[in-house]
Amino acid sequence: MARIERSEVERIADLARLELSRDEVERMTSELEAILTYVESLRALDTDDVEPTYHAIPMATPLRDDQAGAVLAPERVLANAPDRDGFAFVVPKVLDEDEA
Amino acid sequence: MSPAPAAHPDYEVVIGLEVHVHLATESKLFSPAPVRYGDAPNHDVHPVDLGLPGVLPVLNARAVDLGIRAALATHCKVHPRSIFARKNYFYPDLPKGYQISQYEEPLATGGWLEIEVDGRAIRVGVTRIHLEEDAGKSIHEDAIAGREGSHVDLNRAGVPLLEIVSEPDLRSPEEAGAYLRALRQTLRYAGVSDADLEKGQFRCDANVSLRRHGASALGTRTELKNLNSFRFVEDALRAEIRRQAAVLDAGDSVQQATMHYDSERGTTRVMRTKENADDYRYFPDPDLIPLALDPAAVEAARRALPELPDARRARFAREYGLPAYDTSLLTESRALADFFEAAVRSMPARSGEPGATAKRVANWMLRDVLAQLKEGDREIDATRLAPEALAKLVALVEEGRVTAASARPLVAELMERGGDPEALVRERGLEAVSDASEIERAADEAIAAHPDVAAQVRAGEAKGLNFLMGQVMKRTGGKADPKRVREILARRVAAR
Amino acid sequence: MPFETVLELRDALDGGRASAAELAGRALARAAETADLGAFVRLRPEDALREAAESDARRARGERLSALDGVPIAIKDNLIQEGEPCGCASRILEGFVAPYQGTQVARLRAAGAVIVGRTNMDEFAMGSSTENSARGPTRNPWDRERVPGGSSGGSAAAVAAGIVPAALGSDTGGSIRLPASLSGVVGLKPTYGRVSRYGLVAFASSLDQVGPLARTAADCALVLEAIAGHDPADSTSLRDPVPHYTEALSGSVEGLRIGLPREFFEERGADPAVLACVREAVAELERAGARAVEISLPHTRHAVATYYLIATAEASSNLARYDGVRYGRRAAASSLGEMYRRTRSEGFGPEVKRRILLGTYVLSAGYYDAYYRKAMKVRTLLRRDFEAAWDRCDAIVSPTSPEVAFRLGEKSKDPLRMYLSDIYTVSANLAGLPAVSVPCGFARALPVGLQLIGRALDEETLLRAADAYQRRTAWHAARPEAVR
Q1: Which residue among A54, A72, A89 places its CB closest to the CB of B46?
Q2: Which of B110, B179, C94, C188 would suit a FRET pair with B118, their CA atoms being 20 to 30 Å apart?
Q3: pLDDT beyond 90 at B456
Q4: C364 closest CB neighbour out of B51, B281, B287
Q5: Which of A49, C100, A23 is nearest to B33 (CA)?
Q6: Mean pLDDT of C457-463
């Protein structure tokens, strides 16, 4: 049975920039535990000599010619911006260097 | 080889440097947007750079070539397979919420760069070189046009970077400076990057720690980030070394941290401790295929490498018989070195003195060309001076058709306007005066005007002759050949 | 028109019996009639009618037209169409209008298809029932109290209800096939890399694929031909030439070796009524000349676990860009950190949050080797299972879903139970193989789907087998009473 500490769930939520209520932390903790217990079954498999598959279908590295091409017109770049100033995106200030 | 003078009497200083350099490509690492500087915000952005839903990266072939070149120029092993990995963290100038970089399997590892400090040659290890994309820019100023908050410009997001990490082999701020200068020069020679510091094309982070002399374990290190000039790097390192030494002297221990250098006070202070270090959760980017390099292609790239600074300096010393001071200055940039050699090749053949020709051209370059470049704060290929033109000018002076004094100001003009020196000389009426009777007349006038000096010369004082020569040069508008002037003066003085 | 196939509509257009404008009009009207199904999140009547008029004009000028020209099609709400909102059924993309064209839509438009609207889905394609949508659930046309399957439930319902003859969906762990099965239509997930992902909002990059849903395999072949093929904008796109899939539909399965994995036919794994339908379908194929062979895919029992580790890890990274900075919803906040947290917490639904958390955990320091890297290795073992199987068979058969459509709300409280819906479908994504679901009967009056998995780039065999089966059966011709 996999166990996760609530503090661990809070740390992970922080990494993912998700704010969870106390209830949500409770619920997520037990849900994650159930899922992790389920995936524990993988531990039993012997994969010492097995290479990981990062790409299911093997292919050669695609490369692009170094030619400057189309850009998105600046007005379109900013068109969906929740907040802008001229052609710059505006975001609330970082409170201290660490906190973003 | 005698050991280096210690950077600090009580502690051994250990420095490692991480350099991020913009590759000289037309377009970005994973998108076709152009790499440009100084454009209005968000004018050089492709949907891929904006991190829009549904976009995907495609690798720039030239960025790979340049990365390989940099690796070869620093004697690294180029790996036939390397992997792009995502470095995950949140910041407004990082549109996807991750940076595409390389982590466990980088492009190249295990190289070195040789540097010279106070006549000592030092080999500095290059741990690894890898490709990654740059982030955009976040400007945290309070009231930009009256708006609070940070402004985000993604023009730079996606620009191709090479990260070059050195071994902690540097033992002083001077060595660090020398390494950076050598690395920058090598990258420029190899055509990898223009490495223009002002444009932010060459950025340096430094790690520094102290330990007791003779100790083998490394001390705790701190990091100095985004040091924009080589002076800054050396000053910041000195300040941080002072700070760390003081901490250790007091019996305390150094905390791992990122430091900020205050150039006005000349001190460093803690910006961020590493306790809350982000967990970047690196994993291979599933949108990209591992980079597979053909060993034959890498070998071809090695053969195609241009002559690098070290080799060029050595060859200049050998082929042209130039001293270290000259070779060092002439090879400052590849463009300058190319210019010098082209000028030497253009010089008319003189039997028996190839070295002398090179030295003469070198003198003109060191004395006049470099001075003009420095004054105009520009590079040789930003001027209109052609190597053949310089050679022609030098030859004209050698042939006595124009005096050095008349010719020297023409260097600046040729840089401005280009053109043929011979035509310019004619245009300005600067042809040397070699007509004996004109010189004799001027000499007689000078002697008559300064009989006391003439008497001194007759009495054996050489410097009087120089004075009289100056007078004659004035009277001939500087156009008389100095050798002839001296000759004729000496005769006329003696004849009185 | 409702319930006609793409081929039938093309014939009507070519024969002058209908115009593209009429077809578009009828599709839009039917969408309005069946609005309570919640199949669409957005209709685009003016634009669709304009596109249809352009198609009619092309036809009138006697231009050479593709088979899709003038045919009304729907696309899933995670496919980028320039100038259209793209919401992925999520609050976090509210207001976002795409400023660039996705390759899938570009190719449909190049073929002259008329895009009628965007279909509902599980938020960011995370789900098996289309109950995780910020726009409300989609209902199964066969029984409005039941789910149509997910995550491409809207596309499946739109086809099943006869609104459009074909639609595009996306499939990461079964999201085309499962709703196709539960809604009684055909759904095809192509080989990984066969169809460009540039313009598909990413969920799990190494697993996602775009594919067609339609009433027949022949229609799927048509649509696949239009959208498949190399795209230089997608580094994972295959360069192999695209065959004329429609020409592979010979109607014959003579000599086709069908593999039955013993692991997929275990009695306790699925509803017995579902297994019975599937076995009967296999028997039908054998009567048509195919040969059934028992095979074993021993590592498929680990497929769901493997899938959830890989998919959530990749998703946690792919969804980091939804941060309120450059587009979409932004929550009010006085600092950057607060903005990130509030935007994402308010913008994402609970299933998406759950998967982001799991994925973040799986990748985090200390767990990467035990979870993510381990899962990537088990993926190799799965691929090897399939490679060994291809020695003995040409297509692998199974139920698409362990059950028929379940009731709305029945599984949504138990995420793990929901994840097990994918038990037959995820292996194909993990191995990058093509797979199709084709209607093969009814259990308790609800559709049952037969899944066929093929070798990499062998969509032809799958489409040929599915088409041959459909020529001999009439399941796909059945129409839901509920929306007649």
Answers
A1: A72
A2: B110
A3: no
A4: B281
A5: C100
A6: 98
A 30-69: CB under 8 A from C: 31-32, 34-35, 38-39, 41-43, 45, 47, 50-57, 59, 62, 64
Please indicate whether, in this complex, the C-beta atoms of C341 and A91 are within 8 angstroms of each other: no
Q: Where are the domains of chain C?
A: 6-259+391-483
Q: What is the pLDDT of residue B323?
A: 92
Mutate to test the interface with B, among A18, A55, A61 (most CBs of B within 10 A): A61
Q: Mean pLDDT over all residues of chain A?
A: 89
Closest by alpha carbon to C375, among C294, C313, C458, C447?
A: C313
Residue C68 main-chain phi, psi, to 5 deg: -95, -5
- The b/e string for C245-277 (b: 16+ C-beta within 10 A; e otherwise) is bbebbeeebeebbbbbbebbbeeebbbebbbeb
Angle in degrees, 0-180, between the axes of helices B436-449 and B451-458, rounded to the nearest 10: 100
Rounded-to-integer distance, Cα B36 and Cα B24, Å: 11
Q: Return the pLDDT at A96.
A: 61
Within a domain: A18: yes
**Would you state the structure tokens that stand for residue B86, as one six-digit string?**
């995502």
Kindly report the nearest CA distance between residue C259 and chain A, in angstroms: 21
**Active-site choice (C129, C133, C175, C183):** C175
Q: In chain B, which residues fall in CATH 1.10.10?
A: 436-495
* B236 Cβ contact list (under 8 Å, min separation 6): B206, B224, B227, B259, B261, B263, B268
Given a cut of 50, whether residue C135 has pLDDT beyond it is yes
Neighbours of C413 (CB within 10 A): 8
Q: Where do we find the tokens 């990749």?
A: C314
Q: Tell me the three state secondary structure of residue C331.
A: coil
B195: left (phi over 0), alpha (psi -120 to 50) or beta: left
Specify if A31 maps to a domain: yes
Give the pLDDT band (50/70/90) at residue B1. very low
Averaged pLDDT for residues C131-140:
97
Comparing CA positions, the residue from B182, B163, B179 lying closest to residue B171 is B179
Task: Return the DSSP state at C97.
Answer: B
Which fold is adopted by the domain C6-259+391-483?
Answer: Amidase signature (AS) enzymes (3.90.1300)
pLDDT score of B145:
54
Nearest CA in chain A to B95: A89
Structural domain including A10 reads: 6-44
Question: Is C337 an interface residue toward A (CB < 8 Å)?
Answer: yes
**Mutate which of A7, A10, A19, A67 to test chain C, going by most C C-beta atoms within 10 A?**
A19
Whole-number mean pLDDT of chain B? 91
Q: Is the pLDDT of residue C251 over 90?
A: yes
Q: What CATH number does the domain containing A24 carry? A: 1.10.20.60
Measured over all CA atoms, what is the biggest interatomic distance in chain B, rounded to whole angstroms? 97
Any idea which architecture B436-495 has in CATH? Orthogonal Bundle (1.10)
User: C377 an active-site residue?
Assistant: no
The pLDDT tens digits for C391-438 are 999 999 999 999 999 999 998 777 777 788 898 999 999 999 999 999
Residue A27, domain member (yes or no): yes
Range B278-299 average pLDDT = 94
Residues whose CB falls within 8 Å of the CB of residue C169, separated by 6 or more in sequence, listed in order: C76, C119, C121, C151, C152, C155, C156, C175, C176, C179, C187, C210, C211, C212, C213
- Alpha carbons within 13 A on the beta-carbon side of B416: 9
**Cis ω before C334 (30° cut-off from 0):** no
Q: What is the pLDDT of residues B206-253, one digit of tens each?
A: 999 999 988 889 999 999 997 889 999 999 999 999 999 999 999 999
Number of domains forming the structure of chain A:
1
Asked if C364's CB is within 8 angstroms of B279's CB, the reply is yes
The alpha carbon of C94 is separated from its chain's Cα centroid by a whole number of angstroms, namely: 23
Residue A59 maps to a domain: no
What's the confidence (pLDDT) of residue B403?
Answer: 84
